[in-house]
Amino acid sequence: MARAVQQRTLKTRARLTDAARQIIAEYGYEGLRIEEVVKRAGVAKGTFFAHFHDKDALMDILIGAEIDSYLDRIEVCSPPRTIDDLLDALLPLLEFMSCERYVFDVILRHSGAAACDAIGPIAETFARHDAVVAEWLADGPFRNDVSPDLLAQGIQAFSVQSIALNFCAINNTVPLRTRLSEYLTAWLLPDSQSAAAHSAARA
Amino acid sequence: MARAVQQRTLKTRARLTDAARQIIAEYGYEGLRIEEVVKRAGVAKGTFFAHFHDKDALMDILIGAEIDSYLDRIEVCSPPRTIDDLLDALLPLLEFMSCERYVFDVILRHSGAAACDAIGPIAETFARHDAVVAEWLADGPFRNDVSPDLLAQGIQAFSVQSIALNFCAINNTVPLRTRLSEYLTAWLLPDSQSAAAHSAARA
DNA sequence: ATTAATAATTGACCGGGGTCATTTTTTAAG
DNA sequence: CTTAAAAAATGACCCCGGTCAATTATTAAT
Q1: 3-class SS of residue A100
Q2: Mind listing the domains of chain A with CATH numbers?
Q3: How far is the CA of A68 from the C1' of D24 (A)?
Q4: b/e map of A88-99 (b: 16 or more CB within 10 Å)?
Q5: Which position has the higher pLDDT, B116 or A180?
Q6: Rounded average pLDDT over A70-76
Q7: N or C terminus of chain A with fewer C-beta within 10 Å?
């Protein structure tokens, strides 16, 4: 029969994640060293790897939790009626995702291209993001010739693309919001766009 | 005055990249170790880092060259008239990009989110991809309410998204081509879409 | 040729992630 | 209690990317 989880286990795990969060607050995600984590937690190095498969797994958990807290705030918004509303809702999350290059890399690695057998925390947040956005888009003022879920997936694709381009020195003259706005208008309002473009061409 | 590049330099560099290509042929990109590269090239470890900034820079060059060879073939295609034509042209490249998780990770790191100060080989290929596809889409049978370049960028975003999702065990029941086809139909043919693609995807 | 300046190479060394045989602690059974 | 099995923790060790002061090779000028 399987034994219950020991109190000790939970305590050690908590000490490790607490230490990690503390280090991140001081040095950023990029600056985290496992040796420093175990030192502050007062355990041996091997103990860390008994609790987390590797460094990435810890990052997955910590960054996933952070993304979740942004999604909590996004979830309670009323469905956006315009692209600008949508951007207002999503941008805080996207800014966190691009707070550090390392963070964005970790997110990319875990978002869909998850090496792990089971789905991890960050991958979960992507699914949740899809669900929240798809809910918004059902019966909204945007195109409805394709499923809301497909639209939500497209929003994710364009969000990631926008962040990636903005990390590049050559492309980051355009603010994230502006770039994403252009993508989302073309994606969510293909009709109104042509009208706008046409009238612009006429003028 | 700046001195000319020594013959020795070119020779050493060639020996290093040759060794690297050989190792990749045997063990894959993931299996490449710098120690093995320098051993086969018959030079010291430090020499490698005098020629390449780091391991990623070598990968950037090798993978970038590979992508370029796919683009060479893509470039000579006649502009696609249908989504299927487009997929036929692009899929070989996308399959290379997803041949190894590690390769896809390297590509993502270098595509736009380039840490490097200057633009690297892989980032160049992304720009080239954009240019080729934008050229195709100008005056094509697809939507023309937005610029061809924006359409090309969207194709890239959806390509990356499709590959990422396909690496995830949970999502890879849908073939890459099928998934991308759905995205591209919605992106490039927002009008015709409504009835056709939706019922097709369900079937 | 000699020499001074520059370029290329070397390999011992370091940092930090990850492993694993061994030891210590906890738990359940007699 | 005692004890045997399971769980948790330990830290010396390995792997491998990356560094750098010292050495060797090349070039240009006299």
Answers
A1: coil
A2: 1-52 (1.10.10.60), 55-202 (1.10.357.10)
A3: 58
A4: ebbeebbebbbe
A5: A180
A6: 96
A7: N
